[in-house]
TrEMBL record:
UniProt keyword terms in alphabetical order: DNA-binding
Name of this protein: TetR family transcriptional regulator
PANTHER family: HTH-TYPE TRANSCRIPTIONAL REGULATOR RUTR (PTHR30055:SF196)
PROSITE patterns in UniProt: HTH_TETR_2 (PS50977)
Gene3D superfamilies per UniProt: Homeodomain-like, Tetracycline Repressor, domain 2
InterPro entries, per the entry: Homeodomain-like_sf (IPR009057), HTH-type_TetR-like_transc_reg (IPR050109), HTH_TetR (IPR001647), Tet_transcr_reg_TetR-rel_C_sf (IPR036271), Tscrpt_reg_YcdC_C (IPR013573)
Domain of life: Bacteria
């Protein structure tokens, strides 16, 4: 069966949807799916609960919409890895892009982390489908460069996992990092220099 066309929203309707998703992002990133309520989301959005439920049928519906949008955004830098580019520049560019996303979108990163820690009940099909396909494509590009002697040989998927871990950590564990570094540090600027040096030394053939 073909997908039904999505209704065209008025400017006010789109604004209200955006307010709800913005409010929900704050609530979910702080409380997780189980701890969040529609009442909390309504308060964060500055709307009534019935108004929220007019646009989204349930808390689950809001959560799925946020996660799907987030995953598309999170995967975009990987999709942009250019097989025709300079291998080391492409990998370092991906590292910088992922770190910048952690800097700019910490709530989104924590929302995704909450979902994964709960066993990804709302993302199971996506993780095994589109995510795996995009990772497979990027891994094949990395493996090709390694086979050509243009990058140090290693497991390309675990290389990708390491980039995720070392960049998203700065969003997901922000409080811990700031406590350890203390005042006077820009964690992201320092991390960018450190990670670029780390991956350059690791990957230069």
């Amino acid at each position: 069966m073909a997908d039904q066309a999505q209704p065209i929203l008025t400017r006010i309707q789109q604004k209200n949807r955006d307010l709800i998703l913005e409010g929900a992002l704050t609530v979910f990133s702080e409380s997780g799916f189980r701890g969040a309520t529609v009442d909390q989301i309504a308060r964060a959005a500055g709307l009534s609960k019935p108004n929220v439920l007019y646009y989204f049928g349930s808390k689950d519906d809001i959560h799925k919409t946020l996660l799907t949008t987030l995953l598309d955004m999170w995967l975009a830098p990987m999709v942009r890895i250019d097989p025709a580019g300079e291998p080391l520049d492409e990998v370092l560019g991906y590292v910088r892009a992922k770190l910048e996303m952690s800097r700019r979108f910490p709530r989104e990163s924590r929302l995704f982390a909450y979902e994964i820690l709960q066993g990804a009940p709302h993302l199971t099909e996506i993780l095994g489908g589109s995510l795996r396909g995009i990772v497979d494509t990027a891994a094949a590009t990395l493996q090709g460069w390694m086979d050509q002697g243009r990058l140090t040989p290693m497991d390309p998927r675990h290389l990708i996992f390491s980039i995720w871990a070392l960049t998203q950590h700065y969003a997901d564990f922000d409080v811990q990092i700031r406590a350890v570094l203390g005042p006077g540090h820009d964690a992201f600027d320092e991390a960018e220099r450190f990670l670029e040096n780390l991956y350059r030394k690791l990957l230069e053939a």
